[in-house]
Amino acid sequence: MPFSITPYTDDSPMKPWPSLAAKAFCLNGASPAEGTVFFYDSLPYNAPEKKPGSLPCMVLIHGLGDEADSWRHTIPLLNAAGYRALAPDLPGFGRSVARGRISLKNHAAAVLKLLEVVVPGGPVFLAGNSMGAVVAEAVALQKPELIRGLVLLDGSIPGGPANPGIFALAKLLFSRKWYRAYRADPEGAWASLYPYYADLDSMPPEDREFLKERVMARVGSPGQEQAFFAIQRSLVWTYLTAASRYARKIKRYKGTIKLLWGEKDRIMPLSSAKVFQALRKDIELEIIGGAGHLPHQEKPEETVRRMLA
Fold first, then answer.
1. Helix 163-173 / helix 222-241 crossing angle, nearest 10 deg
2. Given a cut of 70, is residue 38 above it in pLDDT?
3. Which among 154, 124, 153, 155 is positioned nearest to 140, based on CA atoms?
4. Cβ of 242: how many Cβ atoms within 10 Å?
5. H-state helical runs in the chain
6. Which residues, other chains included, contact 132 with Cβ-Cβ below 8 Å and sequence gap of 6+?
7. Which residues contact 305 (CB under 8 A, 6 or more apart)?
8. Which pLDDT value is given to residue 32?
9. What is the 3-state secondary structure (H, E, C) of 175-216?
């Protein structure tokens, strides 16, 4: 049975962002063992008659414990600029169902399968945030002929916290007690989002309400919990063991690379970006003022403008 694409109709607690609901689809595996990948596929408003394959395409990859809706404000801005936008939920997160092991390698494989089925032959641009930046790197380094360029937002390998910081993070995050405690503590779950934003309270009311519902849906899902800790282990292991391999391949990669970093990122320090930028003279680094770890959510217009510059 070949892969198939169907409109997303599941009544999941993680409902699509309202303006994107009609653009939500599922890539269904060739067998039950291959799972399903939820994704948004949004075409430019001013080019409905054009064939999708003739349009420039930006693929947006979310970070750890997030979903495609992280790009809810980015997608329409890309459409307005004439870009087709694809944004998947990585396997195990959001509405995507993972049947096998959850790892960075398998996340990259899922993105490659999406490209193979939805935009065969490419080439596309990849934009990844945080952990999604590492997935974007992995995809580009496996199939460089498919990727015209990379935009890495607040994440990269090499880079990231120093090794002692990673071990401390791993010790904290590998304990599930704190994660499960949020199921009975909505205020605590909401408060856990503050470090990711420069000013969460200044977000529009509809965003704050959406994020409150979404964080409770995440912590209430056993599948999401499993995916969170599995990919956290894979991410830490990759930081510790594969940085030099990524560095060698990034130096040889022929596509363009741009780094965008939130000025007030408290999760991934700016020094991480500078470690990555030092690999090549042509890597641009731009700072998004007034943004934290998720500049595409807090400063979407400026972020998209810099992505497309």
1. 160
2. yes
3. 124
4. 16
5. 74-80, 104-118, 131-142, 163-173, 177-181, 186-191, 205-219, 222-241, 243-252, 270-277, 295-298, 300-308
6. 60, 61, 62, 63, 66, 90, 153, 155
7. none
8. 63
9. CCHHHHHHHHCHHHHHHCCHHHCCCHHHCCHHHHHHHHHHHH
Q: Is the pTM of this model over 0.85?
A: yes
Give percent above pLDDT 90 in the chain. Answer: 78
Give the closest residue to 36 by CA, choosing from 100, 104, 130, 127. 100
Coarse DSSP helix, strand, coil percentages of the chain, rounded to the nearest 5 percent: 50, 15, 35
Residue pair 89/96 in contact (Cβ under 8 Å)? The answer is: yes
Q: Are the beta carbons of 259 and 283 closer than 8 angstroms? A: yes
Take residue 252 and report the two structure tokens written for it: 């040889």
List CB contacts of 173: < 8 A, sequence separation 6 or more.
229, 232
N residues, the chain: 309
Q: What is the CATH number of domain 4-308?
A: 3.40.50.1820
